[in-house]
Design brief:
Number of helices: 3
Largest sheet: 9 strands, antiparallel
Order of helices and strands: EEEHEHEEEEEEEEH
Number of strands: 12
Strand order of the largest sheet: 7-6-5-4-12-11-10-9-8
Shape: globular
Number of domains: 1
Strand content: 25-35%
Helix content: 10-25%
């Protein structure tokens, strides 16, 4: 069962579906957004410490599946997938899994992101809040968040594994580098009909670079020696600043997904 949420002032065209749970209509035309970016992007905003300020609400600038959307980021070509690098034993395990095994049906987030953007999870919108000691990533779906310290501290060794891992960040010039470890092994890398399990050895390194006032580039590399034959280098993702300054709470409860779970178990599409 999907729920539909409309942002104030949008039209009726365009519907974004995430895992069949949440449908979000995002109706600002890509052409207008792109033109606005080109004409008034402006310089990279900077925090008091001189580093680029990554704060803002970020999205692709178009409805998922609509004009301008490309799973591999802007520039064309289908993106390689995490599952395409499975070892033979991992590929054999994947054949035993199907939609009904998707953890997101139980409101469990992904470990990375269905659209190849970690902070999106199974949605298509996220917000970054930057402070002197932390970069906080807020995910619109599943009420998700990740707090990333930037003061040089190491990974914590006194916390249990988690769905989204333990993150620490550092600046390399104007690029913000995020290192994530300590994942549980009961989530998937992506969802929406794509089987992509991982192990507790998952290690993710992301690189965020604000190109100008309205553009954010994100690159990532995922390693999982228990599952992958080699690291997965994710295609560069280009995000734009959204025309709204707050994300919405799109909560999920198992009761909301009852119909989806039943359909998956019966093999229906």
């Amino acid at each position: 069962m999907a729920c539909s949420v409309r942002r104030k002032g949008q039209g009726s065209e365009g519907l974004m579906k995430t895992v069949g749970l949440i449908a979000i209509s995002l109706a600002w035309p890509l052409a207008a957004q792109t033109a606005a970016n080109a004409s008034s992007a402006g310089p990279v905003p900077r925090a008091e410490d001189g580093h680029p300020d990554l704060s803002g609400v970020w999205w692709r600038g178009a409805d998922v599946g609509g004009k301008g959307f490309n799973a591999g980021g802007r520039g064309g070509g289908a993106a390689p997938t995490f599952a395409s690098l499975y070892t033979p034993s991992a590929a054999a395990k994947a054949k035993t899994l199907s939609d009904k095994d998707d953890p997101t049906l139980g409101c469990v987030p992904t470990a990375f992101g269905t659209l190849n953007v970690s902070m999106f999870d199974v949605g298509a919108v996220a917000q970054i809040v930057q402070t002197p000691k932390f970069v906080v990533v807020l995910t619109e779906t599943f009420h998700g968040f990740q707090i990333i310290p930037t003061d040089g501290r190491p990974h914590r060794d006194d916390v249990p594994p988690s769905y989204r891992g333990d993150a620490v960040g550092r600046w390399e010039g104007d690029t913000f580098v995020v290192d994530k470890t300590n994942f549980t092994d009961n989530t998937w890398i992506s969802a929406e009909g794509r089987v992509s399990f991982h192990s507790d050895a998952l290690h993710i390194v992301e690189r965020y670079r604000r190109v100008d006032a309205k553009t954010l580039e994100v690159e990532a590399t995922l390693e999982d020696p228990k599952v992958l034959s080699k690291p997965w280098v994710v295609p560069k993702q280009t995000l734009v600043l959204a025309p709204f300054d707050q994300i919405m709470p799109l909560n999920c409860t198992p009761g909301d997904t009852k119909d989806l779970i039943e359909a998956a178990q019966s093999g229906k599409k």
